[in-house]
Design goal:
With 111 residues, the chain is an alpha+beta fold. Helix content is 16%, strand content 41%. The protein contains 2 helices and 6 strands; from the N terminus they run ββββββαα. It is globular, with a radius of gyration of 14 Å.
């Protein structure tokens, strides 16, 4: 079973089994025509466990010498505001430009 370690903001990272935490929303962006040629990439991911807890995390990577990437993440409880967590994580790792795209990728809420 594939495992992934996720960096969280202000607390130790967590390790999850990917099958138990499927991706329910994501967004990515890069600074070139093709992702494989990118100097910078931005990713936001939302995973959700069957019990309703969600992991929201983001990664900014750079190939430029002297420039540092960034990682941020939050583990939120069932029923907590995922959209608000996406905005906080996006701000913490410099992915603000794709926050709304990630939120729009969340499962629709029936009203």
């Amino acid at each position: 079973m594939a495992r992934r370690t996720v960096t969280l903001t202000g607390r130790p990272p967590v390790t999850i089994e990917e099958d138990l935490w499927p991706v329910i929303a994501s967004a990515k962006q890069w600074d070139n025509q093709y992702e494989c040629q990118a100097n910078r990439t931005w990713h936001l991911i939302v995973r959700q466990h069957a019990d309703g807890r969600s992991l929201v995390y983001g990664v900014y990577t750079t190939q430029y010498q002297g420039e540092r990437g960034a990682r941020a993440g939050e583990l939120i409880g069932a029923g907590d505001d995922i959209a608000a967590a996406v905005h906080r994580v996006a701000e913490a790792c410099g992915c603000e430009s794709i926050a709304e795209e990630c939120i729009a990728d969340l499962p629709a809420v029936e009203i």
